[in-house]
Amino acid sequence: MILLPGLLFILWGEPARCLAEGGGFDFNGDIRQYAVATNTVYIATEETLYQLNHDLTLVRSVTQRGTIKIGERLDEAQFQRVSETDKWNTTFRVNVLLPFVEIDTLISCGVLDRGCGFCELLDLEDISKVLYREPFPVGPQRRNSSASVGFLVNVEKTPTETETYILTAIQAYKEKPDKVNCPLSETVNLHNTNNNQKGGIFSYSGDGQGSIDVKDNVEFVDGFQLGFIIYLFSNLPSSDKSNKVRLIWLEGKISKGQTVKSRWGATLSISEGGESSRLEASSVIPGGPPVLWSGVFSVDGGRTNTELVLFDISPDLTGDTDKDPFCTKQECTQPKTLKPKKVLFRQNYMTSVLAVRQKAWIVFFIGTGDGQLIKLVVDKNYHTACPRVLYRADDDRKVLPKMHLDPVDLKHVYVPFQNQIKRVAVSNCNTYTNVQDCWSAQDPYCVWCSSKSSCTFEDDCQDSDWLSIPDDSQQKMVSHRVVKDDTGQITLNIQTHVTVSSEALANFACQFSASSSQLCSRQSPPPQFPQCNCILTNSTLPAEGMHVTVRIRLGKTYLTEQLKMSNCADIIGLPTSVLCRQCIEAGCGWSVNHCSWANQGERNDSLCQKMDSGMNISRPEISSITPNVISFYGKNHAVLSGLNLHDVTRVRIQADMDCTPQESPVWSNTGQRLTFHIPSADNKGVVKVCVVLPDGSCHGNAIVTYRSSPSCTDFVPNTSWISGKREITITGSHLDFVEGVVHDHAPQTVRPAKSNNSQNLIYDTPAAQTNGIFISHVSLKVANETLACSPTITYYPDPEFISFTAARTGDDVRITIQKKADKLNMKMTEIKVQGVRDEKKYDCFMERLETSNKTDSFTCEIRKPPDAKFQKLLIVYGGKTVTLTLSPSYVLLFLMLLVLLLIPFIIVLVIIVYRRKQKKLTATMNKYVEDMELDIRNDIRQGFVDLQTEKADLMENVGAIPFLDFKHFASRIFFPESETLMTSCIKDIGQDAVQVQLDECCQGLSRLIQDQLFLTSMVHALEEQKSFTIKDKCALASLLTVALHNNLTYLTEVMEALLRDLMQQNSNTQPKLLLRRTESIVEKLLTNWMSICLYGFLRESVGQHLFLMVSALTQQTAKGPVDCVTEKALYTLSEDWLLWQAQDFSSLKLKVLFAVGSDGEVSEPLEVNALSCDTVEQVKEKILSTFKAKFGFSYNTTLRDVRIEYEQNGAFVPLEEVDASSVVIGEVTMLNTLKHYKVPDGATIKVLSKKTHPPLSPQGSVKDDENFSGKYFHLIDPDVDKDQRKNPERKKLKLKEVHLTKLLSTKVAVHSFVENLFRSIWAMPNCRAPHAVKYFFDFLDTQADNMKITDPDVLHIWKTNSLPLRFWVNIMKNPQFVFDMEKSPNLDGCLNVIAQAFMDSFSLSEIQLGKYAPTNKLLYAKDIPKFKQEVKAYYKQIREQPPITVSEFKGFLQEESKKHENEFNDAVALKEIYKFIQRYFTEITDKLDQNGAPTELKEQLHHVKNSFDGLKSCSWN
């Protein structure tokens, strides 16, 4: 035994291995073994070992090819792996593959092709690393052994010591082994897993003889361990072809030897008569006791007729152990027999099963031999719901016996096939669109989530109430009963059959309504989930019945049930099944052939099914259905034959356990034959067919078998001639289900099959309308589906027959036909030839075909014609007839001579035409280049003029600044991505002055978070959880800020403690990265703390300069064109938002009149500046903006309700965004502009309200269109191929680089505002920095000293990350956080450039800029050095300022707390914080234990949990 620490070769990228469609993985060879551990899937194929992620993406693969030394003893041969390109002489075939997670190893054992047994220990994380290897037989020693199992088991040596072994149960053969010189293993073995165990690794001796030898033939199916009991399942076939299924229990105690001796057996019998059955696959059901187990049994010996059976296999270890539990002979003592609890499901050819518990339900995933994965859910009473197909392969590939659940998300199941593995979702909840469908799916994985209004997995429905199916199977979500008591009082009882969340449970209510004024009396009891009762005010019901609507509230979900209440005693008539159903559907009960009240009779619908319908109809019989084997796509025009079919209305198709049968109408009915369509099916298998009569009863018992869909693999031949009707043979599978063949060049033509069976189909190709060579794609028509074939047929021109010769041979005439060579590969059998003489036709019999590069020769003979002189031949192929005649030779010679004479004249003519065209093209190109050069020169000159004449003429007086109040400012900083939390954490205006008293549970939590040990422990515990995302961290930090905003002093202490912890984490790695991003709770806490403390400074010193800068940018942008669709502008700071494609424009001054009242009066004119290229929408915006700037308040009509008209020739013309005159290019419409309407400078515009002056043709805003940017354009031409000569100006060449000067123009215009803003930020009023800045910078200095950090750059970066980057840049890029305003995309681009310049001013590194540097860096490159000097001085001033005292800073914090005392809703924040505590309660309590928290604190935490869980007053709504 040799230890090999070296690495092996890894093979990547084999061509036949890939990620399959729909979540799967394809392999080169067949799967031998596969195993799942933590987050990895391991698969051994014939020649490769794969390591895949849980989502089946490849991590790595290792070849199983290698070498052994020739001449070595087989049982000592050492296997060495080689690379794919090296020579190899053996392959390692894996028979046992076991992940040993506890010691991070993968056990891989099997056999060598040219050796014996061999084992390897691989690294679980990297299978290319071999930790140990040894030639040793573990598991079956044959290359192919499917009837053996292997798994890890634990043996309890002492109460405190447990050892892990490999248990292998190997199929016992009567035949000789593959290799005579190799050691044989016993039937059942316990092998060591490490060298510390007695006997060494892989040995099965050393601790007692750990093996069982069996003489008879045993086939093992499955095995597992629960507790210390080991379960083994096997088939025991006998010579009379019968089979017994045997269960063996082993008790894993004391030692290996003791374990194999403590064995008990039982026979699993699924039938009373003891008929032979065979176990195909099995799965233990989680949970227990009792130990429930499910097995797939075949009951006909042929593995076709299979059943899923449920057993209780709880071990009975009371009697004596069995010496030979595998013996089936008469002389052996037979073990006891176990009977099944229930047969759960019957389906042909089930091959695998996986059982999972989901709430109170058991979910079975069943694989079949024809490639299906079926889900079957079973309730606690073992009643089954409708089986559903989760996956269906198109072909008949078999699902292998063992399936596993994805261990990471538990929402997918791995389905293995021969050379492929699929990852299939356990449920398709999102396909159900309403609450009724979600419930009707009877899927325990799905819940109806009220906040999302969708059907989801339960863990995807966070912070919301939900409802799902109950613990037992029910037919209806809401049922009702009508009850009458002894006093004559009638009660309507409503029962809901659902499971709901605690939130929904607390909000359960029912509302009854009817046409009468009051339905329910006041004595009706209050609703008590799951039922409501309505005691009727009137003790009699109308004879015609009464319609009642019941509205049920479950949290935020509402259920509505429409009922018709009838007097049960009035439902009378002959006691038929129809009357019985009518009685039960009315909420009544059936009692001895009459209808009675629900409390006086039975309400089981099965009663009605046993009753006669009362209709006098002959009982129909079914004798046959043609066809009765079809694909799962169904079959049109099936024929059903039988007797007494006259009254049949429908044909019902139902699987054995299908809850929703399908019915098909009858098309034609003669009484003995009828036609109907067999519908498509979700699953493959046998279904029952019966015929339905008008009374709803169904008669007859025929079957139809659904199989896989047809597939095509090859066409012979794979070519056709253009004229069509060439006979093609398709090979494939299930071709007998094909109803026709379709080619994509003739989709309307369905070619019927001339003959077909399962593997072959013959048809004639359709003709093509075009000449030339092309590829035609072929599809198969199956019922209403069209299935594409992967092979194609190539169409070539029709064969060209050139000439023929005739020569007499004895009494016969031999005809030789010359055909031009082509790629059609025409066969002799495909043509028919006749010679014509004197209008009489003589058949020519084909003899041979000779081919060459240029011609093909067909030879045939005409038997005994009267003469050999045939001047004409008729050649028939496909559906075409060609006539071939003998041509005189001199005619052919004359034609050739004529062609030779014409060739020189044609060449001269072509040269003359070419030279003329060349001259014309050169002149056109020269003219185009000159025009283009002139346009570019004009653009450059105009840009230079703009730059030199640019004036900072922007308005500095912008009126009142629309500051947001503190609570709205703070909530936008705290919750930028959560509108819900943003609004719920702010108190309404009416609540501001009122101190709301917190309820008991919220008060308890408030006191708890005021304990610093608890709060810091909770934060650390949550941050250690991988599922606690950055979004969760930010939300919790902001919720804590809201909850503690009244105690800023304590919040500051907590923040400091958490920052110190964070610094300790980063001190050993990269201290410069501290506070750079928001990846922890304390970093978001710091952002919020700065926002609270600097709000006063922001409003008093910085706010005005920020608003002026934003206003200046807005005004500068409005001076030039802005594209209404893309929102790009000519004047901007961002190259990404530069409108360099802008066309020429002119400025206009408009006289705007505002309509006053509805009688035509108008206001004084208002002068508004606009551009000729402005759209109608942009003109409206500029009018309303100018109105607000002039008068100081907004116009009384919103932009959406404003319409404008232009005065033209004394009349007013409406201006619309789009109308009949709009320019359309391709399918894209240009928005109307002032230039389009020819509005001149000084024109008069009238503003009207759509409410008082509605337009003749109402039109909504085009921006409301979902495809606005795809349907419309403004200044940037759409990408369409269309002649645009109507507007030559739009065809001018535009270069982006020419317009880069516009960026500089904009910078010059707003530069003074930017400088004022920057300097207001690093200003020092009264030579003192804001209290929070000075205090926090001193805190950072102290921490640097404590951590022995001497590098001044680190401190500079800390301060920059905490103040400018964390606070000021956020404010600068998001002015809507501070002001009541909207931010356009173009403005956002400009602010990003300014914010970048601001941060560059704080940078310590020198930026080297070249001609390819980004423009946002180049714009402010000359200003940055000056700003950097000012920043250094600012930091120096703060450092030299006298430190702020603790009492002074506490006073500042208390004052800030008092200012905003009642502005936030503490209760909402506390309840949201508790949701995090509830989710991670165990982790928090563990962290408190680690930190040595006092018992009182932990008791306080449990008290808070009990309060929240128990009190309805603290609900989440």
Structure report:
- The chain has about 1500 residues and is an alpha+beta fold.
- The chain is about 25% helix and about 30% strand.
- The chain has 27 helices and 77 strands.
- The strands form 17 sheets. Strands 45-47-50-49-48-51-52-46 form an 8-stranded mixed β-sheet, with no helix packed on it. A 7-stranded antiparallel β-sheet has the order 62-63-66-65-64-67-68, with no helix packed on it. The protein has a 6-stranded antiparallel β-sheet with strand order 8-7-9-10-11-12, with no helix packed on it.
- A hairpin with a 2-residue loop joins strand 4 (about 40-45) and strand 5.
- Helix 10 (about 1010-1025) packs across helix 26.
- It is globular and about 115 Å long.
- The relative contact order is 0.04.
Rg over C-alpha atoms, rounded to the nearest angstrom = 44 Å
Q: Tell me roughly what share of residues is in helical segments.
A: 10-25%
| Contiguous runs where pLDDT drops below 50 for at least 5 residues | 1-17, 989-996, 1282-1286, 1512-1517
Average residue-wise pLDDT? 85
Give the overall shape, derived from the CA principal axes: globular
Looking at how many chains there are and whether they match, the oligomeric state comes to single chain
CA-CA gap between termini: 68 Å
Q: Give the strand order, joined by hyphens, for the main sheet.
A: 45-47-50-49-48-51-52-46
Number-wise, the strands total: 77
Strand content: 25-35%
In DSSP terms, counting alpha (H) and pi (I) runs of 4 or more, how many helices?
27
Which class best fits the helix and strand makeup?
alpha+beta
Largest sheet composition: 8 strands, mixed
